Amino acid sequence: MTVKVRGAAERFGRRFHLMYDVTGRTSMQTQIKDDWTNRMSAHTASPAYARQNGRPVVCVWGFGFNDDGRPFAPAPCLDVVNWFKAQGCYVVDSLCSWSRCRECGGVGRPRGGWRGWARSGSARA
Questions:
Q1: Predicted local distance difference test score (pLDDT) of residue 8
Q2: HEC states along the chain?
Q3: How far apart are CA 37 and CA 33, in angstroms?
């Protein structure tokens, strides 16, 4: 699918970036890092790949939910964010909506340790 998106972006003068969804991953840190290193980072060579301040944009979605599909504590998520930053990426993390309204898609409060994540700036590029 990424090859098709890249091709279309290049053909029609659009931008694209990669977004990882952590839902259902059993070894989230390893899986994402391996995928980026061995497959996806090559797409940043495209002139159509989105950049912010000269750095390739990568989005990671699904941090902070209080459900079994995304059981990750803040530390491993921050590790992934910091790893991408060390690779030279501009990271967009996507937290559960509780960061604004304290509700999480009907699944309750976030797992412990997330308070202050969005305010800290720790997950920004």
A1: 98
A2: CHHHHHHHHHHHCCCECEEEECCCCCCHHHHHHHHHHHCHHHHHHCCCECEECCEEEEEEEEECCCCCCCCCCHHHHHHHHHHHHHCCCEEEEEECCHHHHCCCCCCCCCCCCCCCHHHHCCCCC
A3: 6
Q: Which two tokens stand for residue 101?
A: 């309204």
Residue matched to tokens 């159509």 = 48
Residues 6 or more apart whose CB falls under 8 angstroms from that of 68 comprise: none
Interatomic CA distance for residues 125 and 121, integer angstroms: 9
| Contact assessment for residue 78 and residue 118, using Cβ atoms and an 8 Å cutoff | no
- Quickly tell me which residue has 């495209």 as its tokens: 46
Residue 111 one-letter amino acid: R
Question: In whole angstroms, what separates CA 27 from the centre of its chain?
Answer: 15
pLDDT tens track for 19-70: 998 888 888 889 999 999 999 999 999 999 999 999 999 998 888 776 666 6
